[in-house]
Amino acid sequence: MTATEAATARVAPGAPGLHEAAQSHNPADKTTTVSPPPLRTAVALQVAAALIWLPQAALIAFAIGGIADGAPASAALLPAALILALGILRAALDRTGTRLAFASARTQLSRLRDRATEAVASRSPLDASRPSSGLVASTLAEQAEAIVPYLARFRPLRMKATIVPLVLLAAIAPLSWAAALVLLMAAPVIPVFMALIGWQAKAASERQLVEMSDMNAFLLDRLRGLATIRAFDAVDRTARQLYANAERLRVSTMVVLRIAFLSSAVLELFAALGVALVAVYVGFHYLGELNFGAWGAKLTLTQGLFILLLAPAFFEPLRDLSSVWHDRAAGEAGLDALARLADGGTRLVGALEAPAPSPSATPFSVATDTLSFHYGAPSHPVLDRLDLSIRPGEHVALMAHSGGGKSTLLALLAGLAPATAGTIRLGGTPLTPATAATLRAHIAWLGQPPHIFSGTLAGNIRLGRPGIGTPQLSRALATVQLEDVAARRGSAPIGESGAGLSGGEALRLALARAAAGPRPALILADEPTAHLDRETANDVIERLLAVASGTTLIVATHDPVLAARLDRIVTLPAIEVQP
Amino acid sequence: MTMLRTLRPVFALFWGHDRRRLACGALLSLTTALAGIALLGLSGWFLAATALAGASVATALTFDVFMPSAGIRLLALGRTASRYGERLVTHDATLRVLALLREKLFRGWAQPDAAHALAHHPSRLLFRLTIDIDALDSLYLRVIVPALASAGAALALAAALAFVDPTLALVAGSVLLGVGLGLPFMAGQRAQAASRRRAHALEALRARTIDLVRGQADLAMANRLGAQLRAVTAADQRLGEADLALNRTETNVSFGLGILGTVLLSGMVVAGAVLAEQDVIGAPVAALCVLLTLAVLEPFAGLRRGAVEFGRTLLAAQRLGPRLSPTAPAPAAAPASAMPVQLDAVTLHHACSSRPVLSGISLTVAPGERVALIGVSGAGKSTLLAALAGDLAPTSGTVRTQPTSLLTQRTELFRDSVRGNLALADPDASDAAMLAALHAAGLDAVVAALPSGLDTRLGEGGAGLSAGQARRLALARLLLRNAPVWLLDEPTEGLDGDTARDVIARLASRAIGHSLVMATHTQREAALADRLIWLRDGTIAADCRRHDPDFSTLLATLRPD
């Protein structure tokens, strides 16, 4: 087994170890398994289908030999019927084998994707190494797709290219060692041959892919700045520039392709010459000019034709393999990228979700005991042995200088990251991995900025939660005074990342989420009035207080106007950085 | 037929551009196929003929081995050469078409309506665009060339068989053409539905993944993180089902072609035996016919993938077609405006909404006047700027402006040299003019320190510069333009206080002689203006000049930083 084979063989259903990359990231994971059974069956079926050509070729040669010997036409009927039957069997085996291989590869993709998505979903938002949404989306939706052709096509074809030529050679050699030798010479040493294919495919397709994606990147780059280009009347100039750039890329790509195709032409040449030399050798052998090569006997027409028919089949798997060679690099890159996403990092506290929360929860008290948190080195804590006590229903402003740990504290209270040391109690219940999900279900969150999901305004408020019908929705819209915006937007989807919504509207929308659900026991709000003009900020403060009436509220803020409207101001202590 | 109508703009693009090269590529591909077929056929004939001739010494000595064996070698070499030529020409032709395709698409997307849609859903539309371009990329190489080569090979087989038996030629040729091309064609049409489901599922997967990562905290707190995870999985399931359906189609085509090949082959064995029994042909020609039939299926194998590709192509052509159609001529330029900006009773609706975003706005901006548009977002500030820039056409009323220059809210720079980014504003600008503009924007020292100065290349979206530097470069571009009217959309949003104040000061000192319309939320930006216009619900709620008492009241409502 080659190194790559070993690496990919580990990608098996249920196998915790994914890939070499995964292993290096996660040394504890060393499970090695072989190919999953469906894939092995699939490969076996495809190889069997290719080998059916052996009896078919023998029957064709036998029928033509019969014609040459002057046999009656009826003698060809049985071979013809057998050829047909074998051909149908061959097509059926090939179809089943191909489908099985594809289904197995596709299942594999789903499994790897699920695992990566789950890891991304449970990654703490405070983890600085958490991948960006763009990277996750392009890995999961685009790069991962390359795994399927790699597993479904490349690996069966590689097996075929290893087995089929050898079997055909073994069938030819007993009849004529000379013909077998010709084929062997045409495909000098198969590994050398494969290296040749690999080199040409690498040079051609990888370079070509890079150039193509470069061309797309150029187009997308210009489309992203379309407003500027239009405003400067530069559409025509940019279009011509785009064309000139693509033409330049074409010229440079063709230089590479000219060389790369030359090496693939060598492959073709060997294949064509192999067939031609076999035909010429056998012909001259018949004419008595080349009397060697058949183990001292003379080949019959049937034997000669049989050899000739096998010759193209000898080269076919090699040529097929070369045509999918680029699947390999892309597939392995996809596997690596998914393994990286699925890998480690800091996780949220507890499970991703709780069973449906009981709708009536009394307001939480909040208490922290020597709560500490640091990102990197312990000498640079963000929070250092913080003791905090907030009564149920109290409205508290958290104030600190920039980077003073306000947002971090909110995230810790919500269980979005584990504290380095110390404890948190919400409503008297300690926040632990076992309780975190249930506690979270009673907390409303107002992030900065709140994320606006793709979809409609109503969908953004419901977030798919059960039990939020039209009455709850209208009540929530009224509480945050978003009715007019809702009327204006109707059921039109909101633009990406809330395009078309103002900062104030986005915040009120996030407040409406809290107002629409069962009443939260605690509301955590992170700088709700930052980046808003005074009028809008005042408006948001009123809406926030309306939603928070009768429940506990903690607001991290710089805004003195907002802080003044709350019951109490807690100023986080400045932390002395130890040298 | 709808299908032809769908593909017409794409075909027109391919055919209109470089038809000789495209035809040449297809022809070389056919030559390769024919050489392969002839090589196997001739080899079979040669074997049978030499075997018969070798039976007696007399015939063995008189048999002309030169022509057939030279022919075999020639075909082997010729096939290699034509294959090499085919690959070069088809790839070159594809790359040429791709260059044109991208240019056309860019022009298509630059039309006002398309540009506006793009601005609202950039990541979804650009993702879709990438996928559709990929599909069209493969149309020529994966669909057209193999289809033509297959049809040519089938006709060549029929022509060769016609010398043996016309009926046999007719039957074999028509079965091959009908089934061999018809099957992939039908499968391609059928694959369209699955291709569409696949494309939608992939978009959903992507959008849900982005929501999962970006909205993670919101989802976790709403107890919906698990649900979102399941939504991503559901999108993958739908994608998987579509993948399996497409794979079923592909393997069915493969199966059908396999059956076709084996039926033709066994039929030819029987036909050869019957014709030989009737002494119409001998064993060598029978061998020739059988081996030709065997080899003729090879080019058809390329259609297996082509069928599924065809489905993708149809979908892509449907979505990109409108952007590829000959673009409407730009609307006649509005009559030259005496005033820098003149709006008369302008009302404007967004596409899917009945409430106007602007209603009955009349506004005149005098030369040299500096106007700040204020009001909560959604009041119509950006829409008004877009209307002034000519990006949005009013539903009613007229918009007249002198030439404008726009500073967008999000800094829009490009993967190009610093020079290339500046040249966008003025392609004929001299180095001196560019350096002067950079100096005015406070970026000259930074550019001078760059390794290649003006020729330093920036990454995608101007990557390589800090946010402040990028903003200054955009400002230099605006200054270089020297248009009478400047449109500024929150010109210092996202900059730190010092940079913001510096940018505003530079704007103020260079704005003399220009009219200025600016959308803003902050006092520091609005202080530039000598006239404030307060927009509320798409109408002008207040309009006051610097000496009006209301001016400072309005200014005080803005964000103070």
List key phrases describing it.
heterodimer, A: 579 residues, alpha/beta, 4-stranded antiparallel sheet, B: 561 residues, 3-stranded antiparallel sheet, 18 helices
Verbal overview:
The complex is a heterodimer of chains A (579) and B (561). With 579 residues, chain A is an alpha/beta fold. Chain A contains 21 helices and 9 strands. The model of chain A is unreliable at 1-34 (pLDDT under 50). By secondary structure, chain B is of the alpha/beta class. Chain B has 18 helices and 9 strands. In chain B, helix 5 (122-162) runs antiparallel to helix 9. Chains A and B meet through helix 4, helix 5, helix 6, helix 9 and helix 10 of A and helix 1, helix 3, helix 4, helix 5 and helix 6 of B.
| Termini separation of chain A | 54 Å
Instruction: Kindly report the average pLDDT value of chain A.
Output: 83
Helix percent band of chain A: 55-70%
Strand-and-helix sequence of chain A, N→C? HHHHHHHHHHHHHEEEHEEHEHHHHEHEHE
State the end-to-end distance of chain B: 62 Å
Structural class by helix and strand composition of chain A: alpha/beta
Oligomer: heterodimer
User: How large is the share of residues in beta strands of chain A?
Assistant: 5-15%
What low-confidence regions of chain A span 5 or more consecutive residues with pLDDT below 50? Answer: 1-34
Number of helices of chain B: 18
Would you summarize the structure shown here?
With about 575 residues, chain A is an alpha/beta fold. Helices cover about 60% and strands about 10% of the residues of chain A.
List the helices and strands and how they pair.
The complex is a heterodimer of chains A (579) and B (561).
Chain A: H1 3-9, H2 20-25, H3 37-51, H4 53-68, H5 77-121, H6 133-142, H7 147-172, H8 177-186, H9 190-224, H10 226-231, H11 235-286, H12 301-323, H13 325-341, E1 366-374, E2 381-390, E3 395-399, H14 406-413, E4 421-426, E5 429-430, H15 436-440, E6 443-446, H16 457-462, H17 470-479, H18 483-489, H19 503-516, E7 522-526, H20 534-548, E8 552-556, H21 560-564, E9 568-571
Parallel strand pairs in A: 3-8, 3-9, 6-7, 7-8
Antiparallel strand pairs in A: 1-2, 1-4, 4-5
Chain B: H1 2-53, H2 57-62, H3 66-109, H4 112-120, H5 122-162, H6 166-214, H7 216-221, H8 225-277, H9 283-296, H10 298-324, E1 341-348, E2 358-365, E3 370-374, H11 381-388, E4 396-401, E5 404-407, H12 418-423, H13 431-441, H14 444-449, H15 467-481, E6 485-489, H16 497-510, E7 515-519, H17 523-526, E8 531-536, E9 539-545, H18 550-556
Parallel strand pairs in B: 3-7, 3-8, 5-6, 6-7
Antiparallel strand pairs in B: 1-2, 1-4, 8-9
